[in-house]
Amino acid sequence: MEGKKSTISVLMLPWLAHGHISPFLELATKLANRNLHIYMCSTPVNLNSVKKRVAGMYSRSIELVELHLPSFPDLPPHYHTTKGLPTHLISTLNKAFEMSTPFFFKILQTLNPDLVIYDFNLPWAADCASSVNIPAVQFLTFSAAVIALGIHMYDKPGEMFPFPEIYLHEYEMLIIKKALDQLPGKKFPFDEALRRSRDIILVKTCRDIEGKYMDYLSSLVSKKVVPVGALVQESIDQDGHEEITQWLDKKDKGSTVFVSFGSEYFLSKDKIHVVAQGLELSKVNFIWVIRFPQGERISTQDALPEGFLERVGERGMILEGWAPQAKILQHSSVGGFVSHCGWNSLMESMKFGVPIIAMPMQVDQPMNARLVEYIGIGMEAMRDENGNLQSEEIAKVIRKVVVDEIGEVVRKNARELSEKMNAKGDEEIDGVVEELVALCNNK
User: Fold this and answer.
1) Predicted confidence band at 384 (pLDDT cuts at 50, 70, 90)?
2) CB atoms within 10 A of CB 306
């Protein structure tokens, strides 16, 4: 007979996007630090990108487990990730992921973990786990407000959301309705996976920021909502990137904005021009990460307005493809973050006390932007009635947040929230561990 395991083992299965794998991996390191053994399960192409992160001190406590997806002619293994994936193949990837259920089942039988932690759109993972008597818990990498609004709209159509500060403009609502209409069976993606979570739901948030939305979400789904905290990587690699650091060192304290729209959203040439004109008009220093879709051959110089780089001179730095975001946000010269309002980016900004110039682009980002304004740590650059970006508005909001006296309250709020979050440390994670251990002991 097998002896009782002294260490709880957890198998984690995130969605195949970097914006999901990253918080899952950060949660894995926090749990591993508290003596839980973690199996991080994903496709080989995704695991290759995180191998360095789990080398060294986590090489024994976090094991990478390959999940092989069935092959499709138009979905070779290097496309088993959303990074660089052509948009028209997203539904194919989702289908292939779901078709990997038998492989996932074999992994569960082989490893026999005590618990499975799965992502927002993977009800089949919870079904696999429950079929072999393994409790499964959902981990949501979105804000509690966004999830609560989505479920409210789905479960209570026509009824006002009880928190009017979180809303959508008409043009944003049309985009979301179009996306929902394209879902299989028009089912809300959170619903099935949420219902299968055993007793609790883990959410990447903090009670200080989203307490009332967590409580409302809990009442909607009849499960305890457990915050896991900001999950911002603590040990920032200080090696390399000297050119960026040296450039920032020459700027006055709080005088520079960092501009980034996430790792998987790409601005069109027209939008690049509008943002560029806004930065130029603001007369504020900026460091801007510009990304292009994989395989799109275009130089940054060609994408920007003619003469832009010459006109801004030493006031601006352009980076192509990738930047050490956390390292930049922690630099004393950075006084604002022009952000698409992806939840991971917002959590980093909050943790480091950098106020936000909100420019939401898609999915949950508009609701995140409203939350940022409501809690007073940023301002949104408003679009016109058709949803188009406006250069003058971008410039105005950058100056308000970073330079003008009117923005001092926002800057102060951002500093105070950062101090509060940092003072709490990992209190949330300790609570998460208690909940997970209790679940495993009661299965």
Assistant:
1) very high
2) 10
Number of domains, the chain: 2
pLDDT digits (tens, 9 = 90+) for 407-440: 999 999 999 999 999 888 888 999 999 999 999 9
The CATH number linked to 212 is 3.40.50.2000
Indicate the burial class of 369 (C-beta count within 10 angstroms; 0-12, 13-18, 19 or more): buried
179, 318: one domain: no
* Domain hosting residue 317, numbered range: 242-422
Kindly compute the dihedral angle of the four CA atoms of residues 268, 271, 272, 278, in this order, to the nearest 10 degrees: -170
CA distance 23 to 40: 12
Q: Degrees (nearest 5) of the Cα angle 186, 187, 193?
A: 155
Cβ neighbourhood burial of 423 (10 Å; 0-12, 13-18, 19+): exposed
Q: Which is the catalytic residue, given 80, 119, 152, 331? A: 119
Residue 2 has pLDDT above 60, yes or no: no
Whether 80 sits among the annotated catalytic residues: the reply is: no
Give the integer Cα–Cα distance in Å for 336 and 357. Answer: 7
pLDDT at 228 over 90: yes
Q: What is the largest CA-CA distance in the chain?
A: 75
Nearest alpha carbon to residue 14 among 147, 133, 121: 121
Give catalytic status of residue 119 as yes or no: yes
Whether residue 224 sits in one domain with residue 302:
no
278-328: pLDDT as tens digits: 999 999 999 999 988 776 767 788 889 999 999 999 999 999 888 899 999
| pLDDT tens per residue across span 20-48 | 999 999 999 999 999 999 999 999 999 99
Strand 115-118 versus strand 136-140 pairing type: parallel
Catalytic residue among 20, 152, 273, 331: 20
